[in-house]
Amino acid sequence: MSQTQTLDVGLEGLDALSGVDALCLFVAEDDRPLPSSAGYVDWRLCGALSRVLQGGFFTGVKDDWLLLPSDGKLTVPRIFVVGLGSRKRLDAASLGEALAGAAKVLSRAKVEAVALEVPQGASLSDAVRAEAYQRQFLPAFKGGRVSLLADKGLVGSLSSRKG
């Protein structure tokens, strides 16, 4: 079973990552500008993710995948980017599918420790996001450690579900 630590979403949270060999970002096709962790990572990468999106190589459609090197601009060497499809249409089922798919790809890539932020969507409560993470991502991820970049609402929902 993976052990989880939580860090705040933002540059400080990204800078606090240690012993993590991959970062997993979720980007929707309608995410422009990039929100949350993806936006912070793009800032650190001097717009590299935005350039890939503008070039059309990766667009954020469902089942779209991208692997980027951090080039030493983050403490994490590899960045896996997962396409979510439309964030406006992101529901509990599609969130669960995206998290389970990401966990499987990360496991196949032999990722031992990953950092990720559970995606938000217009109709997704913190409780639904916490449940999808715990029921879809954690059982499918074969690595040993997860650093969760989380807002206070998600942290509270994760804490209340442990009991």
From TrEMBL:
InterPro entries: Macro_dom-like (IPR043472), Peptidase_M17_N (IPR008283). GO terms for molecular function: metalloaminopeptidase activity. GO terms for biological process: proteolysis. It comes from the Bacteria. Pfam families: Peptidase_M17_N. Residues 27-127 form the Peptidase M17 leucyl aminopeptidase N-terminal domain. This is Peptidase M17. It comes from Corallococcus exercitus.
